[in-house]
Each structure stands twice: as structure tokens, then as C-alpha cells.
Amino acid sequence: MPVPREGEVLLEVRAAGVDMGVWHLLEGKPYLVRILGFGFRGPKSPVPGRDVSGVVKEIGPGVTAFAVGDEVFGTCEGSFAEYAVAPVARLARKPEGISFTEAAAVPISGGTALEGLRGVRPGQRVLVIGAGGGVGSYGVQIAKALGAHVTGVCSTGKVELVRSLGADEVFDYTVADFTGTYDLILSCGGGRPLSRLRRATVAGGRIVLVGSEDGGAVTGGFEKSLASVVQNPFIKQKFVPLMAQERGEIFDELRVLVEAGSVKPAVGKVFPLSEALEAVDHVYSRRSTGKTVVAI
Asked: What DSSP assignment string belongs to 180-241?
């Protein structure tokens, strides 16, 4: 049984979200993640998983924000377990009216989408590439909540989901790629060249890059983000490489959006804890629609 230290709580885990980050840390690929300190010969954390929802069972020294019995969600190390220790700074109260399974689908993907869409104004045109996945499904909903005209890009099997999330237009990229120009593009993976994204963005617009799964074993597409930053001084648009911000205040913003009905967790397949590795494989194979969750 893990023991909470100062500023931490012990959680009885009820559910854990799954994203590509879990696969990267388990496999140590791209190799850049090993160099960045996540474990060179093997995973630094012996238990995988980061997204979490559960009940506070014990509080560590100095904790005043939560009490035993509180229902929370957020991130921690090793959420694929019955119990886990979580820093208070990475937790928020679970949104009322949704299940633990739904809550576990929110933190990292929802927070990434929220950060990527900062500054969107009513009436602007937003394009979400990968709209049927974890980050993209939140991107569509948050952009709509901000008053934008939203276009989603996804595969055939996810078209109806993206429409149900509120997208004004949906492109099935297996049939025809997107057209038009946009004030902001939220690109959730995908292999489109930076030049293609730039041509589809108005002068002064932003292109937010969320991950990349089309790179090699060493950098895994990081070079694309680096190239985008190098281009910024010479183009009329702005590339914004984005990393997830795991902070309680961001998760609390998401709680408000969920409780208001503006955002609904798009949970796809749910796996039991005994099949957690199958859940990771499901996400890696890109078969997932919405967010994959492990139920404890």
C-alpha cells in the first residue's frame, strides 16, 4: 500500500484513462523519452497510467484542500492500480453528474485541448484534426463552447461521433481531405506537412501541434515541432507545439465545463484492470474512438 507524503493523498482508484503517452513510457519510444528522464533501461515508474479518478482514502502532511471520502480526478503516477498516491496540485473535485469512468477520461486529453484552444473567440473558424480521438473529441466540444465554427477531420468510423459532439462540418479524410481556411488548427497527430497546415490557416492564425506519431524511433516526430518553431519568424501564421499541462486548476476548469453540460466525456471502450495492457495496445493501434478507459 503506497503511503502519501507531504502534499499528497492516497487514492482508492476507480478508473484510469489511457492515452498514447502510456505506450511511449512503457516502450521507451521514441528514445528521446529515455533521455528526458523517464527511465533509460526500463520505465522509471513500475506501474503505468497517469489519468485517474477515485476516492481519497488518506491525506498526507500539510494537505487541506481535500478530506477523506472526497471524490476527485486528475493525474498521478501509476494509476493502473487499486491504490495510488497523487499530488494535491494535480487533482480537482470530480464533476457532479458523471461516473468515475467518465471522469478518468477527462484530465490529460481534456486539459490538452483546453490549453490548445486558449484565446479562441466567438465566430472564429477552428479545424480539429483527429477529432474522433482523445484530445480531438474534447477539442470539438470546447471550441463549440467558446462559440467557434468547428470543422472536424477523422476516419470513416468516427464521423458520427464527431457530428454528435457538435462539429459544424466533418471531413472523412479517407474520402477527401479538408478544405477551407481557419483561424486556428488543432492538429492532434497526423502526418500532414507543416506547409499544408500553414496554407489552411489565415494570416495571424495559429496552428497548435499536439503530439506526432509519424516520426522515427529516436525522436518520434519531435523534429516536426522543432522545425515549426524555426519557421515562426518567417511566416504569417504561428506554430504552437503543445505539451499537456497537468495542473489542478486546469482540471477544475474542465469540471465547470462538464457540470455545465458544455463538455461530455466521449468514452470509447472500457477495459478491466486485468486487461490494462490490452487497453494500451488498443490505443496504440489507433482503433480507439473517443477515450479508452481502464475500470478498477
From this structure: S-EEEEEEES----HHHHHHTEEEEEEEEEE--SSS-TTTTTHHHHHHHHHHGGGSSSEEEE
